[in-house]
Amino acid sequence: MNLRFLLVPAAAIAALPAAAQTSSPVDYVASAGAADLFERQSSQLVLQTTRDPKVRSFAQMMISDHGKSTAEVKAAAAKDGVTAPPPKLMPDQEQQIAALRSASGAARDAAYIRQQKVAHDQALAIHSGYSRSGTSPALQVSCPLLSGPSTVLVWTMKEKQNAIEEAQAGGDHRQTA
Questions:
Q1: Residues 6+ apart with CB under 8 A from 141
Q2: 9, 15, 62, 171: which is deepest, by most CB within 10 A?
Q3: Given its phi and psi angles, is residue 58 left (phi above 0), alpha (psi -120 to 50 degrees) or beta?
Q4: Contact present, 119 and 135 (Cβ < 8 Å)
Q5: Cα separation of 98 and 15, whole Å?
Q6: How many CA atoms, within 13 angstroms, populate the side-chain half-sphere of residue 174?
Q7: What is the C-alpha to C-alpha distance for residues 117 and 41, in angstroms, rounded to an integer?
Q8: Any idea what the CATH number is for the domain that residue 37 is in?
Q9: Rounded distance, CA 42 to CA 101, Å?
Q10: How far is the C-alpha of 110 from the C-alpha of 55, rounded, in Å?
């Protein structure tokens, strides 16, 4: 896989809710956990009904990638003695899950892809912001968006955006990366 450095536009970070712009380790773990939980739950939901093989493949990949991200953040938190409550969806994420539940067929797939674009940008901003200004050294080093030997590199923004767009169009981004 061709790895690239990630640059999150300042506007993307500024547009996030205050809860996503965290500096305390507990707040970061909670925000990162909520982001991963949303991406996994929405992906599991769409897997129940989608007939589109590209959307199915993308959803399975999101479940796997965000499971790894959660495990890495938990391990880093434990290393620095940070205890955070189990992940919980934010109110806007709960509303988005409800919207997915009420949609069906191709409309559900389309809503899922739209939601994934936004959720991915938010997750990137959470991890990027904490990697720059967080106070827990183990969590800073292990932010899933950093490239380094101790991290699970989820995907860079461009690679994941390509995957989302190709799921919409019906292509395979991994063949061109």
A1: 76, 148, 150, 151
A2: 62
A3: alpha
A4: no
A5: 23
A6: 5
A7: 15
A8: 1.20.1260
A9: 9
A10: 9
Q: What is the pTM of this model?
A: 0.73
- Residue-wise pLDDT tens digits, 152-161: 333 444 455 5
Distance CA 48, CA 27 (A): 32
**Structural domain contains residue 9:** no
Q: Which amino acid is at 3?
A: L
Residue 15: inside a domain: no
Kindly state whether residue 11 falls inside one of the protein's structural domains. Answer: no
Structure-block tokens of residue 131: 């990697």
How confident is the prediction for the chain on average, in pLDDT? 77
- What's the longest Cα–Cα distance across the chain? 45
Number of domains present in the structure of the chain = 1
Q: Which domain holds residue 31?
A: 23-80+87-175
In a domain, 35, yes or no: yes
105: left (phi over 0), alpha (psi -120 to 50) or beta: left
